[in-house]
Every structure is written in structure tokens, then in C-alpha cells.
């Protein structure tokens, strides 16, 4: 089975990390990082195309050299450049870069002074107090590293959900065509739309007398069969993903779907409620005095407990059962509620598409407005816009807008860097010329909680409309910043600033719990694609899914407002 794009992208990330440790040319490092991001978000599996002997599509930021490397990785699983770099830098050293507080310079120190080559190695040294004595380290950083290591070592195995989607859809398709199969549904954390998944759970309703697990384990992508029976199977796919299959009779499909969707805590609560009513729930149905009285659909089970169906995204034991009982479940946001995108990049900075192509793509998705927000001057590698180029872009937007035919209204904006001390990377005069100011941090992620908090509070006191990817996390790669989030929310609410839910599948920042905190604090969320190409706008859908997990409704979301309402919001600052 071909490698996922996300795996190829990991090879590029690793190359970038190793080049970084070797102090290679920053532009070269950047090219690998950009290509990694493009790949991880691309909707078609490139290795599959390579396997079929088809040419690669033209991808933004990926020229002949990187294209050759993609083919090489797709065919061999690795590439010569990576092998060479790995020979020069021990493997786990690069991993250390993903810990907060560790850049290439400190990683080099750890390697040279203490011969540290892996996270567990580092943990050991830090526990003995050896790390604090190194030049450029200290007791605080040592403590911070220990905490991050503890967290990191147990979240490593989870995969971003978006990255396994093609694989899951392929399996579902296949199972639907297996003889005897009536219904197929993916359950577990995938169905609850968690940002990451540990494994995949698939449920099948089948007529009696068919060996569905046999057909399943014979799928071409299966590498190893971990367990197999007449009603279940567990396999590992060639790309490492584990998939659990359960087969039930059609009359049990709803009860089984409920059971295997989880969460476990949600299921346990339902079972307790049932017991209070003299009922028994298991994965086959609901029983009273040994008689089966429901279970073909999820709604038949919830109905017996006098509840509406609770959307899978909410089944986390975060108050959803209480809400369902009191008839106060939220009316969750849907894709149709979104009217615009307020954070996007063009080829003027590190994006790939023209303003016009971005606008046309936004229109094609049914959006009504689009903010163009390229990077500010400090982002040199991302070709951040200086004053002259920004003013030229504002003129260009005016020209495009008056020429008409775009299908969306453009808003003039910028993603302005928040400097280390909380000032913004643009003069107040220029900020005032923009329709919308999106502020974001791109460095100094490891400041102390106190300093990080005052940095953000200071940023919010300036003319900022949206605080972008507020915690800075990258799933599986960079921990969220340390910050007093409640205080940030309080100030955001006071000054009338929204917080972003960045919909890039590896960011999804804010996460579900933070979204809910924001809602409860009365702070609007803006769900933005942070697109770096026209195709990236489709990532908005992952944002909607995460927002639903955060209990968000239409009125909680800034970009569900009409253009007139949005403009009124923007004008207040
Ligand atoms: P994951 O795979 O770590 O992303 O998370 P889940 O939620 O998909 O967990 P998983 O794959 O271990 O199990 C799938 C579902 O099966 C889970 O959400 C609820 C159900 N389940 C698993 N084990 C138990 C159990 O011991 N008791 C109950 N009530 N349900 C369970
Ligand atoms: Ca699972
Ligand atoms: Ca499982």
C-alpha cells in the first residue's frame, strides 16, 4: 500500500530538522518545511499516483528537485539525502527539537556536552539535574522540559485524523461491496471527530452466514492480522495504522454503533441511567427482563432513556447528558453557517495562489467574503510584506474589487507578528489602513507563563480583531504555549477581539476545550483556513468539526455573521 502523504511530509520535516541542526541555509530549510505542509494537506495520495505510473500534479512550492524526492520516497520509503543526514546526526536528536524551549542551538549543546541523543535520555539527565548546569539552560527550563517530556512521551502514537481519512474511506468503500454487508460506519474517536486518533474502529451490519472478517483481513492494505474471529478482526495496515472491525446483526447496529463510538465514559453513564430505569444496555441492544426492546438505531436507544440523539462530537462526558435531559443541547454549527474566511495567504508572501484565484475558490465553496492576510515584515523567510508591498497589495485589492466578477467581497488585512514584548510588527498608522488585523505569534513559544500572558495581553490592547492560532501548538510536534488563558479571554472580551480556530489539520488551534471556554467567556471564535493555496480553503471543514466538539453554535462564530454585521464588529476597533 502506498505511503500516506503525511508520511512523505514527515520525511521532509525530518530533513528540515536535520538541516536545521547542521545550520544549513534557512531558505533551504524553509522550502522543505513548506513542502511538508503542502503534502500533509493535499487531498490526493501522491504515492498512489506514483505507483500507477502517473505524473505528479503541479503542487505549489514543489519544483523538480522536491518532486524527484517525492517519487523516491514513494518508491523506497526513504531518500538518500535523509539517509546521509541521519548518518551525520543521531536519529532521536532531531526529535528533541519539537520540545518547547529547545532550538537547534540548545539541541547541539545537549548532544555535544552530555551526549544526549533521545527524549528518554534527556529525561534521565534532567532528573539528575545535569541539564540546568549547561550554558544557556537553567533550573526553570529543566523543569519545563521534564513536564513536556512526560506529556510528549505518551501522545506520540496518535495520528492527526485528517491524515487517515483517505485510508478510512477506502476501507469503508471496500466493505460496502463485501457480500452480506448491509451497513458500514466508522465509530470510535474518528466518528467523534477528535483531532487525533489512536486507532480506527469500523462497524458492519451483516446478514447471518457471511464471513466478513475474512474478507476484511484479505484487503490489499492489510500488513498484519492481529486478531481474527467470526464477528471481529484487528489488523495493522502497511502504513502502521491499526483498524478494529466489529460485525453485528442489522437489528443490533444502533446499539453497537453507540457502544463503539464511545466515549467509554459516555457509554458508562448511559448504562447507569438505563439501570435506574430497570433496563440493561449492551452492544447488542436494550433489554427489559431479558427481552430485547430496542437497538436497531441509536435513536431507539436514546429514546428509551428519554433523550434526543446526542451528536457524536459531544459524547465526551462534558455535560452532554445533563444538557440532553434538560432539552438544552446546543444547535451545533454546520458548514452552511460559515460565510467567509478571515485568515488567508497569497503568493505575495508564502502562499501559492493569486488573490483572484483565492477569491474564486472561496466563491466556489459558497463563501461570501474573504480576508487577505499575508505576513508582516518580520517574517523574512515567508516574504513578509514591507510597507511598500503592503500598500501595493491594498491597491491591487481595490482594483480587483472594482473590476467585479470575484463572487466574494475582499477584506484588506494582514497577519501581523506579535513581537517578543507584545508590540505588533506594523506601525499604528498602517494598522489603521486595514479592514482587519489578524495578530499571531511565530516565535518565542517557550517564554514563561507570566511573560507569555503579558505579551498576549499587550497585543490585544492594540488594534487587533483576531488572535490567530492562539496557543501555537502543532499536533505531535509542538506543545501549546504556557499562558493564563482565562486572562487572555477576559481581555479579548473587554476589547472586542475574537480568537481564532485555525483549521489547518496539524494546528486545529484553538482545541475543542479552549473553544468552549471562549464561548462561555463570551468571546467570538473565527474559524479560518489559514490557507496557503486556493485548495487549502477546504480545510475549513476540519475547523467546523472541531468547533462542534467545542459546543459552538452559529452565534458563537464571527465568520457566520453577514458581511454587514462583520463590518460593524471590525469598525468597533
Ligand atoms: P482512540 O482510538 O484512542 O482514538 O479512542 P477511541 O474512543 O476510538 O477508543 P477505542 O478505539 O479504544 O474504543 C472504541 C470505542 O469502543 C470507545 O470509544 C468506547 C468503546 N469501548 C472500548 N472499550 C470499552 C470498555 O471497556 N467499555 C465500554 N463501555 N466501552 C468501550
Ligand atoms: Ca479508536
Ligand atoms: Ca479500537
What would the average pLDDT be, to the nearest integer?
Answer: 93
Bound molecules: 2'-deoxyguanosine-5'-triphosphate, calcium ion
Most strands sheet: 7 strands, parallel
CATH topology of the largest domain: TIM Barrel
Number of helices: 24
* Dominant shape: globular
* Named CATH architecture of the largest domain: Alpha-Beta Barrel
Oligomer: single chain
Domain tally = 4
Helix content: 40-55%
Outline the secondary-structure elements.
Elements (H helix, E strand, L loop, with lengths): L4 H17 L4 H16 L4 H6 L12 H13 L3 H9 L2 H6 L7 H11 L4 H9 L11 H17 L3 E2 H16 L4 E6 L1 H4 L4 E2 L2 E7 L5 H6 L4 E7 L3 E6 L4 E7 L4 H9 L2 H13 L3 E3 L2 E4 L2 E4 L3 H7 L15 H6 L14 E2 L13 H10 L4 E7 L11 H17 L5 E9 L10 H6 L2 E5 L8 H12 L5 E2 L17 H11 L2 E5 L9 H9 L4 E4 L11 H10 L13 H9 L2
Parallel strand pairs: 4-7, 11-12, 12-13, 13-14, 14-15, 15-16, 16-17
Antiparallel strand pairs: 1-3, 2-4, 5-6, 6-7, 8-9, 9-10
Helix pairs in contact: 1-2, 1-5, 8-9, 13-15, 20-21, 22-23
The structure holds 2'-deoxyguanosine-5'-triphosphate and calcium ion (CA) (2 copies).
One calcium ion (CA) binds next to loops.
